[in-house]
Amino acid sequence: MIVIGNAENRRTAGLQEARKLLGLAPAVVVPYLDLLRGSKSLSEAAERGGMLGRSGGRPLLRLDAPGEHFEVERELIMLGAPDAARERDADRLHPAGDRSDPQPMSVRAAAALVEQRGRLYHPSQWFRGYSRLLARLEREAEALWPAPRWMNAPADIADMFDKRRTHEVLTTAGVPVPRLLASPDEIPDYETLHETMIKKRLHRIFLKLATGSGACGVVAYQINPRTGAELAVTTVGFDSFIAKPPQYYNALKLRRYTEQAAIRPIMNWLLKHGAHAEQWVAKAGYGDRTFDIRQLVIGGEACHSVARVSRTPITNLHLRSERMSLDELQLSQGVQDQVKSCAEGALAAFPGSSVAGIDVLIGRGSQQPYVVDVNPFGDLLYNVTYHGMDAYAWQMKRLGFER
Amino acid sequence: MTEVKLSIGYDEYEEGKKMQDMLEELANGPAAKELTSLIIGDWGGAYENDSSEIVETLVRLNGQFPGLRKLFIGDMDFEECEVSWILQSNLAPLLTAYPELVSLTIKGSSQLELDPARHEKLEELVIICGGLGEDVIASIHGGQFPRLKKLELYMGVDDYGFDGDLDTILPLIEPDKFPALTYLGLKNSEIQDEIAIALAQAPILDQLHTLDLSMGTLSDKGAEALLGSERVKKLQFLNLSHHYMSDVMISRLQQSGLHVDVSEQQESDDDYRYPALTE
């Protein structure tokens, strides 16, 4: 098995641990940073692991999260630059590849970025870089093996990473999703967003950075058609400067904005980088809190799950939500089964993929499940077991028996 | 006890479903006679339609609900409507139309009125909001609730409707105002310290078993006054949950012999202190 990920992190460690537990040889790890800097490649790793040729078999290939690593982020922004050296059809996996990124940075400018914790450097160019890397890996694997065994195909990862595209794929597949406010082309800026919400009488929406993960770039936004008041709840913040454009960042806590002077620039910035706007479906409650569910699906089957119970509309775990099991929430078996089949349907919409963390909410009143996010790297769940195994061990058992 | 909660989701609302019709249906159904508790949740677009038609309907249908003792108008949360955006109306006609009512809970204070505030048998009055207006507070202390045991008012903040000050609140704690009162909650306030200091020596404490000053901006200043009061010592329960007291003050309270809730200590952000519900 080959894992492309950030070395020395908890995901890679968790996976190696699981392989050891099952008596499998450790996976060969190809760090993103080495891959991006050209010091390692997929073929070099395959050779190192003796995974080439007739005797080498077809190793399992796993792409893991590239996040939480500044240097990798910087390299990806460089790779996404308009002047970056790139292959033919480099943007072919980018679901909105022909859309131009706002205020692009040259390779040189990107290389000069220094780490500022929480800062959102350039999400759209970062994603362009990542989808270029995915395209490169897809091609490289095809040259090494007749039918590469990706746990999640690079093309699917690009689609899952783009919330606009994910919504489209799920809609086509008949998986229940909150209704779309409008296609991204129809809402280029704050003013049209506002008008569209009034016109369609969708006064409560989630606007999500198309290529963000977790709570990053997510805004729970509502407008009051009677008073004109508006409210945005989000982790996004920004600093203004006199001599340069504002810098946007992810705060550790949720903020509530009620002033247009703050809301407008945030919404405009998200929309420029590409954002997905959908109905804010009222989530079912638990006491005076609400929740949604991260449901892991592995090899077509729903397995590990955790509910995220929160006092805020954004439920991500680092925002002080409480983890609970579905049984603790006293969800009926019928609803639990619906959540599972809904999540399984979501993964099935990406036929080249066998692992994803699906975020499912249960509509208040209707008890109807809706898929609100598909996370290609959503298998990092602490202290949750299924048939006595953690998520990594379970997927290795289900998928990773070979080499 | 039979309890029914009625609410209207976004889709139903957009399809034209009305709370008045649901109430009619309930009133004409088999459960009406048995109904003791009715909870009105989101009545559909509660940020653009006020509660007046619900009040009118309930008043008109009062004969159908002979057993109704508990009423909650506006049970919805941030997934449905911001508290400060919930449009209420004058709810006093409900008090007149349901003389046997024992408990009334109201959520949301925008356009809320309670005039005339009088009820011979009401034992519980709770108003949950981000900011309670001076006029509503005035109606309550100017009103008549001879049997009221529990009064729980979220005072809130200036930005969301609290347009009064300590002097607005003080008349509520005059000794003979609510002769049966045993639970007093003047909570979720941005002037929680002032309220605590004013209450610490107030004679009304002698009739209470619970004083609820939770969810507000209470700091050591207010807590010091409470600790120094003989009257507070006689309370059965003091609720100070969600506060800005120091660790030292928390342990002093814990060791004081008081039965006190000091959970949910908050950290002040650049010296700003906020009540729990400010929306």
From TrEMBL, chain A:
PANTHER family assigned: BETA-CITRYLGLUTAMATE SYNTHASE B-RELATED, RIBOSOMAL PROTEIN S6 MODIFICATION PROTEIN
Protein name as annotated: ATP-grasp domain-containing protein
Domain of life: Bacteria
Biased composition (Basic and acidic residues): 85-101
Segments of this protein annotated with the region Disordered: 85-104
Species annotation: Paenibacillus plantiphilus
Automatic annotation (TrEMBL), chain B:
Pfam families in UniProt: LRR_6
InterPro entries recorded: Leu-rich_rpt, LRR_dom_sf, STM4015-like
NCBIfam families referenced in this protein's UniProt entry, alphabetically: fam_STM4015
Protein name per the record: Cytoplasmic protein
